[in-house]
Design goal:
9 helices; PSF3_N; three-stranded antiparallel beta sheet; alpha+beta; DNA replication; 192 residues; extended
């Protein structure tokens, strides 16, 4: 985990990654809270079983050579996502495929050794970055919620930053304060 206290980093590592167990795993616990008893079921996972596990667990199990990682569908070389991004990246709904698309891709690429994920993420981000900032400066508040449903969490933050910057620019252009004194500079020193 890169940043222990960053909620976005925690949520990005909760994304499910398909994996295949290489060895039998005995005594794997599964917490079942479907009823009021809150019981823990003990399972045996056989070698060759395919499961989707959170990334934080996949990374640890992979480093211990207990599982092999299958590339998630949104990053796969023959995926529909790659074709759609190549055709028109600005209108692809990446949030439904992976809300933390870029962050998970950056963490997953060195782990599985796929050299095509990095350039793919760069192309997608480069094209979508321009679209996000253009729409942040031009969309009205009635159209914006529909557009925000297409953006990943990283892109949504960029969109909000773009809207804040245009609002600050408009305030400044209208005649807001030109210069502001930093709060540190306004304090008087105590005599020694």
């Amino acid at each position: 985990m890169a940043n222990y206290y960053d909620i976005d980093d925690i949520l990005a590592e909760e994304e499910l990654v398909p994996s295949v167990f290489q060895h039998n795993a005995n005594g794997v616990g599964l917490f079942d809270s479907s009823d009021d008893t809150d019981k823990v079921l003990v399972l045996v996972v056989e070698a060759g079983s395919r499961l989707e596990l959170p990334f934080w667990l996949v990374r640890e199990l992979y480093l211990r050579q207990l599982i092999s990682i299958r590339v998630p569908p949104c990053f796969d070389r023959e995926s529909k996502t790659r074709e759609e991004i190549a055709a028109d990246a600005g209108h692809v709904d990446l949030r439904s495929r992976c809300p933390y698309f870029y962050e998970l891709g950056c963490k997953l690429a060195p782990l599985i050794g796929d050299k095509t994920i990095g350039p793919f993420l760069l192309v997608a981000f480069r094209i979508r970055y321009r679209e996000v900032l253009i729409k942040a400066h031009t969309l009205t508040m009635t159209v914006a919620p529909k557009y925000l449903t297409l953006l990943t969490n990283e892109e949504a933050k960029l969109y909000e930053a773009g809207q804040c910057s245009i609002a600050a620019f408009k305030k400044w252009r209208i005649g807001g304060p030109r210069f502001q004194i930093a709060p540190v500079l306004g304090r008087k020193r105590k005599p020694t």
